[in-house]
């Protein structure tokens, strides 16, 4: 379940719709993350990723830095409940071609998982399964 991946992750970083792209880029760099949620109060209204900034740079040039999050954010944002399986989350992210998935429980935002988080978890599961098989065969 993807809710369990959130344990031990960094705190969620979010911005408002009027946050400048320059400030968002600074946040992404400072926190070593690939995306931020755009919130209106407690509601998710968008997501700005490195990919959105890159696309904006191509489209708008250097002026993108003074543009607001609202101008480049991906919206609406697909979310998932914490009980979503790893395979389900990976399928949604692969099919929809995005790298970040907010995890929500009703109206409460629990966190944000990346495709990297999911791949790491899947590798750990596969290694654990392999160890269990080796132990079973050896006994």
How would you explain this protein's 3D organization?
- This protein is α+β, with helices and mostly antiparallel strands and 139 residues long.
- The protein has a single domain (2-138), classed as CBS-domain (Roll), CATH 3.10.580.
- It is 44% helix and 20% strand.
- The chain has helices spanning 21-31, 50-60, 69-72, 86-96, 115-138; strands at residues 14-15, 35-40, 43-49, 100-105, 108-114.
- The strands form 2 sheets. It has a 3-stranded mixed beta sheet. Strands 4-5 form a two-stranded antiparallel sheet.
- Strand 2 (35-40) and strand 3 (43-49) form a beta hairpin.
- It is elongated, with a radius of gyration of 17 Å.
- The model has no long low-confidence stretch (mean pLDDT 92).
């Amino acid at each position: 379940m993807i809710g369990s991946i959130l344990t031990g992750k960094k705190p969620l970083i979010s911005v408002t719709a009027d946050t400048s792209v320059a400030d968002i880029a600074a946040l992404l760099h400072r926190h070593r993350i690939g995306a931020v949620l755009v919130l209106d109060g407690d509601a998710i209204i968008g997501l700005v990723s490195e990919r959105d900034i890159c696309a904006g740079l191509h489209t708008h040039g250097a002026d993108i830095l003074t543009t607001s999050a609202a101008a480049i954010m991906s919206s609406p944002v697909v979310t998932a409940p914490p009980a979503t399986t790893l395979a389900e989350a990976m399928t949604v992210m692969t099919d929809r071609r995005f790298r970040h998935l907010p995890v929500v429980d009703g109206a409460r935002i629990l966190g944000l998982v990346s495709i990297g988080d999911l791949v790491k978890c899947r590798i750990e599961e596969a290694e654990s399964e392999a160890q269990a098989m080796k132990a079973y065969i050896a006994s």
